[in-house]
Amino acid sequence: MIEYRAKCSNRFIEGYHRCRKNDLTMRIVVAKPGLDGHDRGAKVIARALRDGGHEVIYTGLRRTPDEIVRIVIDEDAGAVGLSSLSGAHSVLIPRVCEGLRASKMDNVIVFAGGIIPEHDRASLYDVGVRAIFGPGTTSTEILEFLSTIEERSESGDPVGVGEEAGWHW
Amino acid sequence: MSELDDLLVEARSGNRRSLSRLLTLVEEGHNPPIERGIGSSLGITGPPGVGKSSLIGKMIDVWVERGESVAVLAVDPSSPRSGGALLGDRMRMTNADSSDLVFIRSLATRNHPGGLMDCLTPMVAILSECGWDNILIETVGAGQSEIRVVAFADRILLVDGPDRGDIIQAEKAGIMELADLIVINKSDLPEAERAAEAVKSALSVAEDEFTPEVLLVSAHSGMGVEELIVQLENTTTSSERERLRVRERLISAWDSALLTSSKLDDILQALEKGSITLLDAVNSIRKDG
């Protein structure tokens, strides 16, 4: 029994370092921009990302784009997920992207979720958003997106908010 | 000059991005370009749900009002299963994200063997070197491994609440002996006075020469927070508590050495078979050292 437990704990630790070595573990900010007061979706995503082995920093409700940029800088996060259900996505999300570029955080990956109609999506992809997840998205899909990001970034393809737009999930 | 030296120079001149990057590298185990032991930190700990983060949020307001800067290292546990972590402390410190006088970094414990988080000491040194006036380390005081984390702070504030049943819980956790100052949060609730009295009476039977003060605060209304800040300025640690903290740090380093020893699997097998005794095992690992 003791041996079994020791093996297990070693495996967790090895698994963890293996993740680190391949850099599969990311620090991800999950943020709620604007006056939208519903965060069940954001919390579910935060848990799913944690269960996928990532370190997730949840901002809480009603943050301004400037605050979100500041949080991404202070937390040295590699990605930020923006959840919006209030209809203000076309204003708030581009502002976060601009703020990140202005702070030279060009390599940060921006993805979005919530209620974002199809006809608003193209303009968000144009400002550097790399994925938009709507209702019905599985957590596996979001984790797959992050692994794809990892592969692309290893082969030098653009993924960050300040890097060449074009590719999105 | 190495990358870390460059980052430190930029961080010293007030570049948050460089400071943040430097902290990441130190967290990942790079040697910091700085002497250990610079700067002094205040550890804030207490059971889950007593309002540590909310109280820190209010303390930040008082410091910022005075023009003092505050840096917070908020530690939360990593999941032992996935290695991931959900870090939610900063959602309770919302006034902080727009002030240049405040820096908050969320840290996961990352399942270090033995609960050893020795990156905290150099992180505090870096923050101090970069001119942050008040440096806090926040951790949930729920068990032994969290006590080990907070033992890396230079002084410890224990936060407790009125709605937690018997105060014996705090004593059982062993955290009371380490505390330099104790606050009972949620003083707006009726049971708070009684909880404070219970803590005081528990402390009065201890034989410590310097028993910690017990204060009532409300992170909800802000009552008592300014008094807490003033009291903190007048609170020093005792040599007994300093000894206890150093002891905790040593034990986590020791456990870490044991759990990462290359002989661990062999020793466990030998113990299972009964071919060596526990004392043999300890001696064998010590020789390894």
Extended strand count of chain B: 8
Order of helices and strands of chain B: HHEHEEEHEHEHEHEHHHH
The CATH homologous superfamily of chain A is named Cobalamin-binding domain
**Low-pLDDT segments of chain A:** 1-23
Please estimate the helix content of chain A: 40-55%
- The whole-angstrom Rg of chain A is 17 Å
Write down how many β-strands of chain A occur, each being a DSSP E stretch of 2 or more residues: 5
CATH architecture of the largest domain in chain B: 3-Layer(aba) Sandwich
Summed up, the domain count of chain A is: 1
Shape of chain B: globular
Largest contact between protein chains?
Answer: A-B, 42 and 39 residues
Sheet with the most strands of chain B? 7 strands, parallel
Uncertain runs of chain B with pLDDT below 50, 5 residues or more?
none
Distance between the termini of chain B: 33 Å
The level 1 CATH classification of chain A is Alpha Beta
Please tell me about this protein's structure.
The complex is a heterodimer of chains A (169) and B (289). Chain A is of the alpha/beta class. In chain A, 48% of the residues lie in helices and 15% in strands. In chain A, strands 2-1-3-4-5 form a five-stranded parallel beta sheet, with helices on both faces. In chain A, helix 5 (118-126) links the parallel strand 4 (109-114) and strand 5 (129-133). The longest helix of chain A has 20 residues, at 2-21. The radius of gyration of chain A is 17 Å and the shape is globular. Mean pLDDT of chain A is 85; it is low at 1-23. Chain B has 289 residues and is an alpha/beta fold. Chain B has two domains: 1-33, no CATH class; 37-238, P-loop containing nucleotide triphosphate hydrolases (Rossmann fold). Chain B contains eleven helices and eight strands. Chain B has helices at residues 3-12, 16-27, 52-65, 120-129, 144-150, 168-172, 192-204, 225-233, 239-259, 264-273, 278-288; strands at residues 42-46, 70-76, 85-87, 102-108, 134-140, 155-160, 181-184, 213-216. In chain B, strands 4-2-5-1-6-7-8 form a seven-stranded parallel beta sheet, sandwiched between helices. In chain B, helix 6 links the parallel strand 6 (155-160) and strand 7. In chain B, helix 5 packs across helix 9. The radius of gyration of chain B is 20 Å and the shape is globular. Classes of the chains: A alpha/beta (169), B alpha/beta (289). Chain A binds chain B through residues 2-3, 6-7, 9-10, 12-13, 15-16, 19-20, 25, 46-47, 49-64, 66-67, 70-71, 73-76, 103-105, and chain B through 16-17, 20-21, 23-24, 28, 78-88, 90-92, 94, 97-98, 103-106, 108, 110-111, 113, 259, 264-265, 268-269, 271-272.
